[in-house]
């Protein structure tokens, strides 16, 4: 009766219904919209739970568009990989919906917010369940739209509007490559169904092309904020904090990682090298950027970019490892690469959502102050937030036996087995992570309040604290096997386990790295500081770091201002000449030669029209018989 | 063949839908005589109900696969899946035209019943036209359609309506004369016993196809084919036989404009598809080059001429020319063995085009002033604000015509373009894509005018250009909403429709 | 000159080949087309259109005779019938237009344009 595909359909129908109801009927009714949207998120979590734990795998596909030998189909592919992602999206999504109830309280256009959130859930679940690239791309674009709408949620802020535009445009760059990749894949495989492509490649590995793999990876680069398209993600923090937690930390930005895992069979060795380089560079570079940030959300955003780099690297490293050690090839749907990436994705979803929600709680408590150097002393004012945030903090820096430790160490282990250079870089990234997070943690929570806002900080209401507590527990224990009940155990079982000696070496390395980062942060920032000590004491280094962080924006801005703007101005001029001149002013004086000419051909005189007929006859005559 | 066996070949049940339409048309006239004058306003509604019932019956028959397929009336007609699709298409079109006509005629003091009667007769003739398999049948059906349209175009008897009627009359008769002469030439040359493959049944499609394939270079045959295609090109509005379109569309009342734009054009395409895939050996001949050139020119002309057009009825006419161009692209692709399924894509596009056009024309018809000579795009300012339904449906219809992704028009165009790609018509494909880009300008200009206040360039003086928006009855609102929704849904989900239209 | 008896005409007619008939039909068609192109009066244009249809009729009869099939003759009946319907409708439109505009000259019927 309850089949997996029915549940999958229900998963899409529930949030879509909620979004449509809010859009059409409850635009002004904030309370109803809240209930609908959070109810939908709860229903999604329940249905997803049933689908994950009570249902088997499924691959269904219904023809969507069939004409002759051309056909497109819609369908769901439910396997361990999509179940893991589904679990993350449904569960974390629900918690963040609940949190948003408290955070968004009193906002004037709350219905719009919750409508967009439901729409986002719909699109995101579509990505998770899609069984072919065309359908995936459609939902991919839809999450882009909902992200755009939510980043620009505070319409009155010009910076929010600019940020949403930046996100949208940057993502289009990646999606353009993605689209070309899909078209190429269709020409290569004559189908876009993932199962069929996988079967084709299994039969003939030479069908997998580096070009297709890299073009598809372009989509992931855009969505998951990999270099050089990472610039939109820090700016995207203009959106409400629950949005940052849900979309720009836990789920949507991870869609790129999920895409890579979903198409792992299309990867070639060359493509994997590129993927690895991009991932490792991003992991390190974003860590460097995070060091100089003062806005609490921007620090977390760069940290997200960095961790996404780890996931991309994890995918590449794991896949390379499996190629080297065929005995560890892993589950059919969850190869070593996919498992490593998804494991870190999952733990990251827990602790990064927690950190963002914690930051949201702090911002909420501090009356929308976001500069960490104007906070301070929050630990006493907001004890629950402090404890939960600390849980996220230790998880992120990879403190031993906490969730982030397990997933990050898996990555480091794989790197050690496959690419020692990558390992060095990733270790450096981990060091940076520990450093900048310590900087954040001590500055925000310790010492005395440094502004009126933080002086008057107050603890958030229960509706915000409960999600924090749940996520805090998960951030601590999220790396343990017992969290992953069958069938999710495939996630941890697919990973190779280091032998005892290596395990100890990794443990020690991690501990040392964390300690070094922590001590570094403490030395520089003590128990909190009113200004950025790095900026005041080691000025050249700070300037260098800021320069490194800004160079992409500067380069893009230069390109936009000097190249694109010129072209746009030229086009605008032409448009003004052709369109505004003619259509808007309606003046025939400004010549739009073709349009006017075509228009003036209709003289209204029948004889003129008969000449057209004669001309047509003669033209055909000459075409047939020559002159 | 003696008369008895000829009579036995008549399969009357095969044309049951057409007969039923004819009876319905006659029934309307009878009702006018029988009913007291006070109840005459019920007659158009009876026509509407009758057509809906017929549509239901037709769909039921098709879904049960119970319709008659094969030749009937000694080969005059051949019934097939594509014919059934066109039957549904024309019946839907006539139903919508009847609906619009009821609204439009309520504002006029004119005899009513004849209008609906002629619409029904023309619809029946269009159904027979696309299923005809013999040139005499084709001629009679085509002329029934054409003569019916002469009356309908000038039906409102205003000065502009009559001028449009006269223009349509003269140019239509001219094209009919060319078509007739072409048919006669084909008949003469294909019956000539001195030539290989000559047949005694030279007007039948099959025999003619055999003959034309064997005599590819015959001059008289080529002239005949050119003349016939010119006659059909007039119907579909292909360059250079498109020139009548804006004038006639503007002069005719909006329901009839819609009928011309959707029904008559689709009938032309039905005939054209039959001719180029079944009768004329297009092969690699000049005919194919001609089709390619005409398709390209039609796309470009329609879009360029529409760029500067501000009268909405003329705009719909000119943009309709460009849609005829896209459809010609599909028809051309269908002549390649690699893309035989393109005929299905053409029919699908016709359905999509109907839903979107009827949505736009429905709005236009409702907003039309008494002279019904077409509104200027400027007059749509604030439409979305004053009537969200009208503005929304208009935007969805225009967006679909422009081919904006989630809407049905996008899928329709994509299918045509894929077919063209498979057929290797790369140059034409480039022209078509350029045309689509051009079209976005004028469609969006209109949408912006109707929906977005801030695009208004000149502040409007109070009272100037104020468009009167009449209240709309529930049925009308539901119909418009259904058209908009159909356009939306067909963009996401084609499922059974695309399978049904999969003619291969 | 008095009318020739049919018996003297028959041998002459027998020497007229199909090509002659078709040439005449073609000329009629072209003359009709030129008439449509050049004449100003709508009624005359309409007559020219009928002339083009008659060209088709003549060709059909000639072909029918030469090919030895009756289809052409049957087609002629249909052409004549349809032409009659067309004329009935067409003249009605022209008369109605004349009542509104008081002219049937083509160059004065150009309000619908551009």
Explain what the structure shows:
The complex is a heterotrimer of chains A (627), B (504) and C (114). Chain A has 26 helices and two strands. Chain A is mainly α and 627 residues long. Chain A has a two-stranded antiparallel ribbon with strand order 1-2. In chain A, α1 packs antiparallel against α4 and α13 packs across α17 (403-418). Chain B is an all-alpha fold. Chain B has a domain at 282-504. Helices cover 71% and strands 1% of the residues of chain B. In chain B, 62% of the residues are buried. In chain C, α2 (18-38) packs antiparallel against α3 and α3 (42-67) runs antiparallel to α4. The longest helix of chain C is centred in the last third of the chain and has 31 residues, at 71-101. Chain C is elongated, with a radius of gyration of 19 Å. The chains are: A mainly alpha (627), B mainly alpha (504), C mainly alpha (114). Chains in contact: A-B, A-C, B-C. Chain B binds chain C through residues 135-136, 139-140, 143, 146-147, 150-151, 154, 157-160, 162-167, 169-170, 173-174, 176-178, 180-181, 183-185, 187-188, 191-193, 198, 200-203, 246-247, 250-251, and chain C through 22, 25, 29, 32-33, 36, 42, 45-46, 49, 52-53, 55-56, 59-60, 62-63, 66-69, 71-72, 74-75, 78-79, 82, 85-86, 89-90, 93-94, 96-97, 100-101, 109, 111-113.
Summary of the model, kept short:
With 627 residues, chain A is mostly helical.
CATH structural class of chain C: Mainly Alpha
* Rg of chain C, Å, rounded: 19 Å
The strand line-up of the biggest sheet of chain B is: 1-2
Helix content of chain B: over 70%
Q: What's the average pLDDT of chain C?
A: 88
Number of strands of chain B: 2
Topology pattern of chain B, helix = H, strand = E:
HHHEEHHHHHHHHHHHHHHHHH
Structural class of chain B: mainly alpha
Uncertain regions spanning at least 5 consecutive residues of chain C: none
Helix fraction of chain C by DSSP (H/I, runs of at least 4):
over 70%
CATH topology of chain C: Helix Hairpins
Rg of chain B is 22 Å
CATH architecture of chain C: Orthogonal Bundle
Beta strand % of chain C: under 5%
Q: Which protein chains are joined by the largest interface, and how many residues does each one contribute?
A: A-B, 39 and 58 residues
The termini of chain B sit apart by: 35 Å
DSSP, total strands of chain C: 0
Return the string of H and E elements of chain C: HHHH
**Number of helical segments of chain B?**
20
């Amino acid at each position: 009766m309850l089949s997996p595909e029915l549940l999958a359909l229900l998963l899409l129908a529930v949030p879509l219904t909620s979004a449509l109801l809010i859009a059409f009927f409850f635009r002004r009714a904030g309370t109803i919209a809240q209930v609908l949207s959070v109810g939908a998120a709860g229903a999604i979590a329940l249905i997803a739970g049933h689908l994950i734990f009570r249902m088997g795998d499924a691959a269904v596909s219904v023809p969507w568009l069939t004409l002759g030998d051309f056909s497109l189909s819609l369908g769901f592919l439910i396997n361990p990989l999509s179940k893991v992602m589904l679990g993350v999206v449904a569960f974390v999504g629900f918690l963040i919906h609940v949190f948003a109830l408290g955070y968004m309280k009193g906002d004037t256009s709350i219905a719009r917010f919750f409508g967009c959130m439901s729409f986002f859930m719909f699109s995101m679940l579509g990505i998770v369940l899609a069984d072919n690239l065309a359908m995936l791309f459609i939902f991919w674009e839809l999450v882009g739209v909902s992200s755009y709408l939510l980043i620009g949620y505070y319409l009155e802020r010009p910076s929010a509007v600019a940020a949403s535009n930046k996100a949208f445009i940057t993502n289009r760059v990646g999606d353009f490559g993605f689209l070309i990749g899909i078209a190429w894949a269709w020409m290569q495989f004559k189908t876009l169904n993932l199962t069929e492509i996988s079967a084709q490649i299994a039969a003939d590995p030479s069908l997998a092309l580096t070009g297709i793999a890299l073009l598809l990876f372009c989509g992931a680069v855009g969505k998951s904020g990999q270099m050089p398209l990472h610039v939109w993600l820090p700016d995207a923090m203009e959106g409400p904090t629950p949005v940052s937690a849900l979309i720009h930390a836990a789920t949507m930005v991870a869609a790129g990682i999920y895409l890579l895992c979903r198409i792992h069979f299309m990867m070639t060795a060359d493509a994997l090298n590129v993927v690895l380089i991009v991932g490792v560079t991003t992991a390190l570079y974003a860590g460097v950027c995070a060091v100089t940030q003062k806005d609490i959300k921007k620090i977390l955003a760069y940290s997200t970019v960095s961790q996404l780099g780890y996931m991309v690297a994890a995918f590449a490293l794991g896949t390379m490892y499996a190629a080297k050690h065929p005995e560890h090839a892993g589950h059919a749907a969850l190869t070593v690469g996919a498992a490593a990436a998804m494991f870190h994705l999952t733990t990251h979803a827990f602790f990064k959502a927690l950190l963002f929600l914690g930051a949201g709680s702090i911002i909420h408590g501090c009356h929308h102050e976001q500069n960490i150097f104007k906070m301070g002393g929050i630990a006493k004012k907001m004890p629950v937030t402090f404890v939960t945030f600390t849980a996220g903090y230790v998880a992120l820096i990879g403190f031993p036996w906490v969730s982030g430790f397990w997933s990050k160490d898996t990555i480091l282990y794989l790197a050690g087995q496959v690419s020692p250079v990558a390992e060095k870089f990733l270790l450096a990234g981990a060091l940076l992570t520990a450093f900048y997070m310590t900087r954040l943690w001590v500055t925000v929570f310790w010492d005395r309040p440094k502004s009126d806002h933080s002086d008057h900080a107050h603890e958030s209401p229960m509706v915000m604290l409960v999600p924090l507590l749940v996520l805090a527990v998960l951030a601590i224990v999220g790396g343990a096997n017992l969290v992953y009940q069958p069938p999710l155990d495939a996630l941890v079982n697919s990973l190779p386990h280091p032998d005892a000696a290596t395990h100890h070496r990794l443990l020690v390395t991690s501990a040392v790295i964390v300690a070094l980062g922590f001590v570094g942060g403490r030395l520089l920032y003590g128990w909190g500081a009113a200004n950025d000590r790095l900026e005041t004491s080691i000025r050249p280094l700070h300037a260098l770091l800021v320069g490194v962080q800004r160079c992409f924006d500067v380069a893009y801005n230069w390109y936009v201002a000097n190249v694109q703007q010129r072209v746009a101005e030229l086009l605008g001029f032409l448009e003004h000449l052709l369109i505004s001149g003619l259509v808007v002013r309606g003046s025939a004086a400004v010549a739009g030669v073709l349009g006017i000419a075509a228009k003036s051909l209709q003289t209204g005189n029948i004889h003129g029209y008969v000449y057209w007929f004669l001309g047509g006859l003669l033209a055909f005559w000459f075409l047939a018989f020559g002159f | 063949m003696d008369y008895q066996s000829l009579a036995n070949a008549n399969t009357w049940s095969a044309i049951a839908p057409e007969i039923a339409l004819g009876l319905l048309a006659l029934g309307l006239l009878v009702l006018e005589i029988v009913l007291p004058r006070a109840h005459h306003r019920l007659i158009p509604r009876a026509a509407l109900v009758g057509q809906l019932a017929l549509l239901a019956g037709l769909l039921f028959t098709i879904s049960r696969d119970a319709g008659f397929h094969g030749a009937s009336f000694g080969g005059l007609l051949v019934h097939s899946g594509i014919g059934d699709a066109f039957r549904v298409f024309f019946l839907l079109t006539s139903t919508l035209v009847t609906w619009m006509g009821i609204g439009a005629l309520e504002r006029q003091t004119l005899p009513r019943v004849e209008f609906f009667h002629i619409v029904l007769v023309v619809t029946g003739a269009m159904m027979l036209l696309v299923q005809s398999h013999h040139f005499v049948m084709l001629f009679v059906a085509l002329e029934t359609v054409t003569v019916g349209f002469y009356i309908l175009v000038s039906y409102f008897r205003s000065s502009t309506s009559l001028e449009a009627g006269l223009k349509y009359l003269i140019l239509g008769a001219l094209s009919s004369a060319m078509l007739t002469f072409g048919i006669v030439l084909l008949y003469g040359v294909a019956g000539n016993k001195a030539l290989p493959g000559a047949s005694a049944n030279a007007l039948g499609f099959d025999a003619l196809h055999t003959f034309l394939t064997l005599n590819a270079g015959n001059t008289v045959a080529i002239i005949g084919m050119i003349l016939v295609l010119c006659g059909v090109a007039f119907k579909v509005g292909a360059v250079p036989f498109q020139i009548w379109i804006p004038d006639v569309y503007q002069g005719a009342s909006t329901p009839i404009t819609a009928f011309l734009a959707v029904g008559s054009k689709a009938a032309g395409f039905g005939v054209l598809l039959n001719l180029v895939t079944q009768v004329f050996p297009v092969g690699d001949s000049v005919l194919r080059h001609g089709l390619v050139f005409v398709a390209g020119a039609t796309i470009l002309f329609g879009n360029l001429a529409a760029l500067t057009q501000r009268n909405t009825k003329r705009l719909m006419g000119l943009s309709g020319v460009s849609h005829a161009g896209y459809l010609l692209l599909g028809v051309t692709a269908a002549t390649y063995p690699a893309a035989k399924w393109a005929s299905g894509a053409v029919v699908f596009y016709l359905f999509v085009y109907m839903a979107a056009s009827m949505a736009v024309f429905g709005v236009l018809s409702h907003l039309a002033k008494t002279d019904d000579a077409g509104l200027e795009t400027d007059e749509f300012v604030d439409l979305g604000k004053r009537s969200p339904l009208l503005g929304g449906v208009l935007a969805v219809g225009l967006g679909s015509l422009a081919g904006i992704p989630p809407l049905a028009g996008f899928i329709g165009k994509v299918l045509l373009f894929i077919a063209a790609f498979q057929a290797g018509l790369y140059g034409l494909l480039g022209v078509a894509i350029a045309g689509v880009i051009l079209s976005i300008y004028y469609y969006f200009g209109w949408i912006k005018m109707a929906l977005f206040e801030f695009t208004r360039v000149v502040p409007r003086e109070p009272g100037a250009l104020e468009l009167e928006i009449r209240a709309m009855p529930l049925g009308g609102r539901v119909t418009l909403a259904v058209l908009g929704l159909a356009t939306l849904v067909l963009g996401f989900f084609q499922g059974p429709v695309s399978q049904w239209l999969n003619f291969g | 000159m008095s009318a020739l008896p049919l018996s003297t005409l028959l041998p002459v007619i027998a020497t007229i080949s199909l090509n002659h008939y078709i040439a005449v039909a073609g000329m009629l068609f072209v003359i009709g087309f030129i008439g449509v192109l050049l004449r100003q009066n709508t009624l005359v244009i309409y007559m020219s259109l009928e002339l083009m249809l008659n060209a088709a009729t003549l060709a059909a009869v000639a072909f029918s005779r030469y090919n030895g099939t009756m289809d052409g003759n049957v087609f002629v009946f249909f052409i004549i019938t349809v032409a009659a319907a067309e004329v009935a409708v067409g003249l009605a439109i022209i008369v109605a237009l004349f009542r509104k505009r008081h002219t049937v000259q083509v160059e004065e019927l150009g309000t619908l344009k551009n």
